[in-house]
Amino acid sequence: MRARRRLNDETVPRLQAPVIAGAANNQLADDAVADLLAQRGILWAPDFVANAGGIINISVELEGTGYDPKVARGRVQEIGDTLRAIFDAAAGGMTPLTAAMELARRRLADPAS
Questions:
Q1: Which whole-number Å values give the CA distances from 3 to 6, 12, in the listed order?
Q2: Fewer beta carbons within 10 angstroms: which end of the chain, N or C?
Q3: What CATH number is given for 12-109 in this structure?
Q4: pLDDT tens per residue across span 72-86
């Protein structure tokens, strides 16, 4: 079986991309890689945000009011707004990972926010 490739302290220095928005299941070998990406000026879209569409769709299915594809699409389209908020916070000196985790904590603490 081939080992999964992840971004790590060996692969990040070889990157030539200004932005990374990878597939689900965390591209980072560990959280410290987010700092390496930021130090290189590479913008990383946290996978658990960029790939949230499927789970958002399932949540609409489970609401019990009957599945509404328009509601699901509207909520999935909000992923762009969430990424913008994360990138804005990251521009203030934190990594996108830290910004995403802080936003997730706030939303879990106050789902109405």
A1: 9, 17
A2: N
A3: 3.40.50.720
A4: 999 999 999 999 999
Q: What is the pTM of this model?
A: 0.85
Query: In Å, how far are 37, 86, 89 from 56, measured between CA atoms?
Result: 28, 18, 23
Contact predicate 69/16, CB 8 Å: no
CA angle 41, 16, 29 (to 5 degrees): 75
Identify the three-state secondary structure at position 19.
strand
**Non-local CB neighbours of 98 within 8 Å, separated by 6+ positions:** 34, 90
pLDDT in tens, 40-94: 999 999 999 999 999 999 999 999 888 999 999 999 999 999 999 999 999 999 9
Query: HSE (CB half, 13 Å, CA atoms) of 104?
Result: 10
- What the block records as the tokens of 112 is 């109405």
